[in-house]
């Protein structure tokens, strides 16, 4: 994926140099609670995760989670991007931020940029989003982004309630 800029953020591909940041983000209590424990206990675990999950998704599907960093100081603060899950036809928007960045609007800003990116791709007709039933902040963000609640989704997990949201992109014009 290309580098995406907003007024305050840069969204870019992850590299091996991001391993400590990814380990820190993915090991935060909220990330493990709302996204899942990816078992990134060491820098090497995070390097492997970047290669085998993030970069492999990009090679296989042309999309992935991007590292979100502040333009002001190039500090990585989260991830945001598109995920292609085998069990769904649509692309899934995903995001996660360091707890110190909650309430700053970074999730909204980066997600809007990803939605605009998706609208430029004629193969992407709609986006989906999945969140846990107790992640109220994510549910509110999805609503602000224009997503609508669809149902409780059992294709992803049979141990916790996951809520499925969708956003039609309407990026396909019909010509007479």
TrEMBL record:
Statement: the UniProt record of this protein carries the keyword Transferase: yes
Pfam families xrefs: Acetyltransf_3 (PF13302)
Protein name: Acetyltransferase
Keywords, ordered alphabetically: Transferase
GO molecular function: acyltransferase activity, transferring groups other than amino-acyl groups
Gene3D superfamilies to which the protein is assigned, alphabetical: 3.40.630.30
Keyword Chloroplast in annotation: no
Residue ranges of domain N-acetyltransferase in the record: 9-170
Bilayer-crossing regions: none
């Amino acid at each position: 994926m290309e580098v995406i800029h907003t007024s305050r953020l840069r969204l870019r591909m992850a590299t091996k140099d991001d391993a400590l940041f990814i380990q820190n983000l993915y090991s935060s209590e909220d990330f493990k609670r709302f996204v899942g424990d990816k078992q990134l206990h060491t820098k090497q675990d995070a390097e492997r995760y970047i290669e085998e999950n993030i970069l492999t998704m990009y090679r296989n599907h042309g999309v992935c989670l991007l590292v979100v960093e502040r333009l002001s100081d190039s500090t990585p603060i989260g991830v945001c991007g598109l995920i292609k899950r085998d069990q769904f036809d649509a692309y899934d928007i995903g995001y996660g931020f360091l707890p110190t960045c909650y309430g700053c609007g970074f999730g909204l800003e980066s997600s809007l940029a990803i939605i605009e990116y998706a609208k430029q791709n004629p193969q992407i007709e709609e986006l989906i989003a999945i969140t846990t039933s107790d992640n109220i902040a994510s549910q509110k963000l999805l609503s602000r982004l224009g997503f609508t609640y669809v149902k409780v989704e059992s294709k992803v997990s049979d141990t916790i309630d996951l809520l499925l949201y969708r956003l039609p992109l309407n990026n396909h014009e019909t010509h007479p």
